[in-house]
């Protein structure tokens, strides 16, 4: 991914060198999107809706033949439903001669989960402006971007009815560590880094000579998402019980996606200012 960004930067640098002999002008603008989608959780503590809010400021340098290049940044906040956490609980049999309750099986429970984070990033873009009328145009934008956020969380919604060990003769033998998270979401801190390369298509309308509006959709985007577990480790403690430790490792590591980003971000709307 880094090599791709370096290639894009090299291309932009070459075009910028050619632009020094033309009447180049700077422009600046931004696009943004905000949406919420209600879901139907089975627990009152589960995430009730997926949401995304994002704004992307950009600064461009006009080149020859309706090309421009520039810097793009992104600031976003999201919460999205994730695949459920599967947790197993032991089922104990009758006490044997050694005063031991043997495990005779396991009960499995599905815990609702979501991912939440605030991200910021920056990158480079190359834009082609194609007039299709006196005031309308199509704009193709190739971009590469890195974004990150260090204060994210994996949110688990516990199923409190399953937080006990069903010993024979005991109806409510609860685990003390499990009760410490009662009536609240269980939060697992995480950090996130995203590498993106994509192609946008925008329809633009020129309101004034110095102002245009855009409706932008992503045609294709490659995304590498890196999620890291930020839970504390205790070197001086041999064992600290975490009922979700093993089952939540599925969220961390590298995740890849290629396709249109419209499914994740929706249609973006923006303004382009050309005062110079």
Structure description:
9% of the residues lie in helices and 58% in strands. Residues 15-22 and 163-182 have low confidence and may be disordered. It has helices at 2-19, 176-179, 262-265, and strands at 26-38, 49-62, 67-92, 103-131, 136-157, 186-208, 211-229, 253-259, 268-273. Strands 1-2-3-4-5-6-7-9 form an 8-stranded antiparallel beta barrel. With 276 residues, it is mostly beta strands. The radius of gyration is 26 Å and the shape is elongated.
Layout of helices and strands:
Blueprint: H1 2-19, E1 26-38, E2 49-62, E3 67-92, E4 103-131, E5 136-157, H2 176-179, E6 186-208, E7 211-229, E8 253-259, H3 262-265, E9 268-273
Antiparallel strand pairs: 1-2, 1-9, 2-3, 3-4, 4-5, 5-6, 6-7, 7-8, 7-9
Separation, N- and C-terminal Cα atoms: 34 Å
Q: What strand line-up does the widest sheet have? A: 1-2-3-4-5-6-7-9
Oligomer: single chain
Order of helices and strands: HEEEEEHEEEHE
Taken as a percent bin, the fraction of beta residues is over 45%
Tally the beta strands.
9
Report the sheet with the most strands, covering strand number, pairing sense and barrel closure.
Answer: 8 strands, antiparallel, barrel
Helix content: under 10%
User: What is the count of DSSP helices, taking H or I runs of 4+ residues?
Assistant: 3
Rg from alpha-carbon coordinates: 26 Å
Low-confidence stretches: 15-22, 163-182
Mean pLDDT: 81
Classify the secondary structure makeup into a structural class. mainly beta
Basic shape = elongated
Keywords: Signal
Protein name: Outer membrane protein beta-barrel domain-containing protein
Organism: Algoriphagus pacificus
Signal peptide: 1-19
């Amino acid at each position: 991914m880094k090599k791709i960004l370096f290639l894009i930067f090299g291309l932009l640098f070459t075009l910028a060198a050619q632009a020094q002999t033309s009447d180049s002008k700077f422009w600046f603008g931004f696009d943004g999107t905000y949406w919420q989608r209600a879901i139907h959780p089975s627990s009152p503590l589960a995430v009730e809706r997926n949401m995304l809010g994002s704004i992307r400021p950009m600064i461009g340098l006009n080149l020859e033949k309706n090309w421009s290049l520039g810097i793009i940044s992104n600031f976003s906040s999201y919460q999205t439903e994730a695949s459920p956490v599967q947790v197993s609980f032991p089922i104990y049999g009758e006490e044997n001669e050694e005063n031991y309750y043997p495990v005779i099986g396991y009960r499995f429970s599905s815990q609702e989960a979501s991912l939440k984070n605030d991200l910021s990033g920056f990158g480079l873009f190359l834009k082609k402006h194609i007039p299709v009328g006196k005031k309308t145009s199509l704009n193709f934008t190739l971009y590469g971007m890195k974004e990150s956020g260090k204060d994210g969380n994996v949110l688990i919604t516990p199923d409190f009815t399953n937080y006990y060990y069903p010993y024979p003769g005991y109806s409510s033998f609860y685990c003390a560590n499990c009760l410490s998270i009662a009536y609240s979401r269980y939060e697992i801190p995480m950090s996130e880094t995203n590498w993106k390369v994509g192609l946008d298509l925008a329809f633009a309308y020129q309101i004034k000579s110095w102002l245009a509006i855009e409706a932008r959709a992503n045609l294709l985007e490659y995304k590498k998402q890196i999620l890291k577990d930020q839970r504390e480790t205790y070197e001086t403690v041999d064992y600290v019980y975490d009922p979700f430790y093993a089952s939540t490792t599925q969220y961390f590591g590298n995740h890849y996606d290629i396709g249109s980003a419209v499914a994740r971000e929706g249609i973006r709307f923006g303004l382009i200012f050309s005062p110079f």
